[in-house]
Design a protein that fits this description.
Helices cover 51% and strands 11% of the residues. The protein folds into two domains: 161 residues, P-loop containing nucleotide triphosphate hydrolases (Rossmann fold, 3-Layer(aba) Sandwich), CATH 3.40.50.300; 62 residues. It is built from ten helices and five strands; from the N terminus they run H-E-H-E-H-H-E-H-E-H-H-E-H-H-H. The two termini are 19 Å apart. The longest helix is centred in the last third of the chain and has 17 residues. It is an alpha/beta fold. Strand 3, helix 5 and strand 4 form a beta-alpha-beta unit. Helix 8 crosses helix 9. Strands 2-3-4-1-5 form a five-stranded parallel beta sheet, with helices on both faces.
């Protein structure tokens, strides 16, 4: 299977529209904060990682143990690397780190930052506050990526913070058309209607599961070129 392809299925097109909207917004009137969210397995993180890599954006993934200071250190490290500001990352208080981040972003006004697993920040008021300060005080675009209830949780945590978010897109379950597009782009075997039908029938609208099914079909066809599609066992993917 071909690696790191970002196929222009519906979710990709709609997520791209979110970023385009924020990049082209009236910057003096609107902050550059948006959110992509949805159920597990629909391709949010895959999109965020590949899109950020291909376009030179900063990608950060929060973890359950991420503290506000750890987040700022990770962001500074990414900024220093991207803008070749030197090998030494400054240290200090969280407040000093935030001030340095703001100064750096003021010097690089077209920066786009993608923050995945934003759900882990909802229990950290200071972490959310740091992100809020960045979008309030700079022209930076920040894309938050979270689970299906991330939009509601953000509203519950802080209504004023929620109001700052100028674009939301909820990732949808993948369609048969999406499956056909992805299969034809990434599979190294012939993608027939029978192959598409088997993938569509067995994925439940879940991109992660669909990719497993594609891989199994491809592997089995390469081992046994004459195998019937209906005879391929998908039990390990379901």
């Amino acid at each position: 299977m071909k690696q790191n392809k970002l196929v222009a299925i519906r979710n990709v097109l709609e997520a791209d529209a979110c970023i385009r909207f924020l990049l082209n917004r009236p910057k003096m009137e609107m902050v550059g904060l948006g959110m992509l969210y949805g159920c597990p397995g629909l391709g949010k993180s895959t999109y965020a990682q590949r899109m950020a890599f291909q376009r030179g954006y900063i990608y950060l993934r929060l973890e359950s143990t991420t503290t506000p200071k750890a987040f700022m250190m990770a962001l500074l490290t990414a900024l220093y690397t991207k803008f070749r500001m030197g090998p030494v990352i400054p240290c200090g208080t969280a407040n000093n780190l935030l001030k340095l981040i703001l100064r750096t972003l003021e010097d690089h006004k077209d920066t786009v930052i993608v923050i995945d697993e934003i759900d882990y920040a909802f229990g950290h008021e200071k972490l959310l506050g740091a992100i809020r300060d960045i979008v309030d005080e700079t022209l930076t675009v920040i894309i938050l990526v979270g689970m299906q209830n991330a939009r509601d949780r953000l509203s519950q945590v802080n209504a004023h913070y929620f109001d700052r978010c100028n674009y939301f897109y909820e990732f949808q379950y993948i369609s048969r058309q999406d499956i056909a597009m992805v299969a034809r782009e990434v599979m190294d075997v012939e993608v027939t209607e029978e192959v598409i039908e088997k993938i569509d029938f067995n994925n439940g609208g879940n991109m992660r599961k669909a990719m497993k099914v594609m891989y199994i079909i491809e592997t089995e066809q390469m081992k046994q070129p004459d195998i019937e599609i209906s005879a391929i066992d998908l039990s390990t993917a379901l």
